[in-house]
Write a structure and sequence with these properties.
- It is a single chain.
- With 420 residues, the chain is of the alpha/beta class.
- It is built from 13 helices and 14 strands.
- The protein has a nine-stranded mixed beta sheet with strand order 7-6-8-9-14-13-12-10-11, with helices on both faces. It has a five-stranded antiparallel beta sheet with strand order 4-1-3-2-5, with helices on both faces.
- The radius of gyration is 24 Å and the shape is globular.
- The chain starts with a helix and ends in an 11-residue tail after the last helix.
- The model is unreliable at 6-18 (pLDDT under 50).
């Protein structure tokens, strides 16, 4: 072989050895143009049977994907920043992550989870932060409601989000301000008609049965994520199982005498020892919520994400991945949780340093897990009934919305025996 041919062969061999093998979606603050759509790209890859890795605490929780022309193209179409890595580059990063001195971990994502959102029929995506961000990130989901839940269709899904729902049968406690408005009257009638169709005399009984089906879904190994009033009203419904806590304007007859003393806190997921709000005109379910107790001005309303060991505690580490540990607060019917009313086996993942309130919590129930995130919309500080939807094109790097998407991708992680 001549010298010239040898040089050509070496160039070819060198080009093969340096050929890109991976695509990195960086998730740090300065590099990624669209954090939210990056989750959608990762979900899309899993859906197409590509392998993916979540690099916990590496550049904000980056995603490592195989290099394929269609993945690069999809990133370009969706406006997601990516970097092309050689085998050597990827191995160097993975070696750095595996070092015992680094608080990082590589988590294999195996398959796209099947996502369901518990939401009334006819709701628009912008009515709820989760459906809003799933739509924006282009992550497919199936809307389900009472009929599907009670006919045991939850078994078809890995992940369930609870819309801003009232599981207590008190119609969101909107009675005081909105009892005469057409939308309130219509929603009350629709709920009563659906409960009757499903064989229940009262809406509270139907919602209680739904809450127990959701509880069983989690116990059986499902992952449930709830925001705003779905968090505390879900636990209240379980705690008040078989007890009438509704006043006549809600269900046509008086509540049970001394119902507070009959609550069974053993039934709840996250909260204990809470006191229910009896007054029907009061826009509040219980003292779990901090809305009126917190006294925090808007410019100081932030909460801090806890730091966990990625190698020893990969689950909370996944759920807290972000490009910042300080997240802007936001209000809702349930703005924040009173930490004194949270069960000791529930993990606090985000707390406000000014008053110790919890904003983001996680726990296990049976074989499954749940996460509760307080507030209504991470990019709308005080969302009012009838307000225009949040335009996520204006918030593509939202840390609060990232927390929601962490929960969506979490069930894709390969299950491994925990070290603790």
């Amino acid at each position: 072989m001549g010298f010239k041919n040898t040089i050509v062969l070496l160039i070819i061999l060198f080009s093969f050895s340096t050929k890109a093998s991976f695509v990195l979606l960086p998730m740090d603050e300065t590099t990624q143009k669209n954090h939210l759509k990056a989750y959608g790209i990762t979900f899309w890859c899993l859906d197409k049977k590509y392998k993916a890795s979540w690099l916990l605490n590496y550049r904000g929780g980056s995603f490592l994907l195989p290099d394929a022309s269609e993945i690069r193209k999809e990133c370009q179409i969706r406006g997601v920043s990516f970097e092309v890595l050689s085998d050597a580059d990827a191995n160097s990063i993975l070696n750095e992550i595996s070092s015992p001195s680094q608080n990082m971990e590589t988590v294999i994502l195996e398959k796209a989870p099947k996502v369901a959102v518990y939401t009334p029929k006819g709701k628009q995506p912008w009515d709820d932060a989760v459906t809003l961000v799933l739509t924006y990130a282009e992550i497919p989901f199936t809307p389900i409601y009472d009929e599907e839940v009670l006919s045991d269709q939850l078994i078809l899904y890995d992940w369930l989000h609870l819309h801003h729902e009232d599981f207590t049968g008190q119609y969101g406690k909107f009675y005081g301000a909105y009892k005469s408005t057409p939308w309130y009257i219509e929603q009350k009638k629709s709920a009563e008609d659906l409960a009757a169709k499903l064989g229940f005399a009262k809406v509270a009984q139907a919602k209680g049965a739904v809450a127990k089906k959701i509880r069983d879904f989690v116990i059986g190994g499902g992952f449930m994520f709830a925001m705003c009033s779905a968090t505390d009203s879900f636990d209240i419904a379980l705690t008040a199982d078989g007890i009438d806590i509704c006043e006549p304007m809600f269900d046509g007859d008086p509540s049970e005498a001394n119902y507070q003393s009959k609550l069974n806190y053993l039934n709840s997921f996250a909260f204990k020892d809470f006191i229910l709000e009896r007054r029907p005109e009061k826009y509040e379910f219980s003292d779990i919520d901090m809305t009126e107790k917190r006294r925090i001005p808007m410019d100081k309303d932030y909460f801090t994400l806890m730091e966990f060991s990625a190698k020893w505690d990969p689950i909370p580490s996944m759920l807290c991945q972000n490009h910042t540990q300080l997240v802007k607060g936001f209000m809702g019917q349930t703005t924040a949780f009173d930490s004194n009313l949270i069960k000791s086996n529930v993990l606090l993942m985000g707390t406000c340093e000014l008053n110790g309130e919890a904003r983001y919590i996680h726990g296990e129930k049976g074989k499954g897990m749940f996460a509760f995130f307080s507030g209504h919309d991470p990019e709308d500080y005080q969302h009012q009934v009838g307000d225009a939807p949040t335009v996520l094109d204006l918030h593509p790097n939202s840390p609060g919305y990232r927390l929601i998407l962490n929960n969506v991708l979490f069930p894709a992680a390969r299950k491994k025996k925990l070290k603790t």
